[in-house]
Prior knowledge:
It is a single chain. By secondary structure, this protein is of the alpha/beta class. Helices cover 39% and strands 18% of the residues. The protein is built from eleven helices and eleven strands. The strands form three sheets. The chain has a five-stranded mixed beta sheet. Strands 1-3-2 form a three-stranded antiparallel beta sheet. The chain has a three-stranded mixed beta sheet with strand order 9-11-10. Helix 7 (151-160) crosses helix 10 (196-209). The relative contact order is 0.10.
Amino acid sequence: MATKIQKIMESNPNTGFMFGDWLTRQGLDAKGQHAYMKSGWLNRISKGVYVLNGTAPKLLHAISAYNNQLSKRCIVGAYTALELRGYSHYLSLGKPQAYLFTGRTNKLPSWILSHDWDMTVKYMTTSFLGDDLLGVETMTFEGDILLVSSPERAFLECLHLPEAASSLLDLYYIMESMTTLRPRLVQSLLETCSSQKVKRLFVYMAEKAGHPWFKALKFDNVQLGLARYMVVPTGKYIAKYNMIIPKDLAEYE
């Protein structure tokens, strides 16, 4: 019984999660998968999703397998991407959170959203930065390959979160530390971004922080919009960007 699954693991040493379709392509058909499950070699997480017996399932490993075995594109982004990249100003309280993004036509299966993982799933479907993975990079995490937002993209994703308005000062603390962003990538992301709120907040914060890379940006092709935007119901009006932001952010020096 062990021979076939051992050969698969030897060829894919970092694979803890195994999808049925992928196992079939490795030479282990549905009948064989069922036999390995009945014999105790594999544990089933959901229909057609397995882990080796004795393996503690971790969310980011599942996302890696989901992408790489099924040719999907789930992005680890926002705060989680910033933490993976060493921006530790944001510290999760309690159970770590995993901010995951997909396009609207590539939604995560329900078992990923409902399983009791080592991290809390925070999931959004969005295309506000386009559909071509601009600013998304591969990263090795505990032997697995993930799609992770660059710092430039991750910060924009943080601003796009539904709860962003309540944590803008905390986000600005992170912006202050982002001294090495790549202006060409920032430029491309701003030109692609469809959210005027996100663009205005990003540009405001970057200008306020006074980073050298901000001076390299060109705004001729960045549409910030003309209508007044109320980021919060009450706060301070910033005339240059025609928006109302939290008073603590506006007055922070």
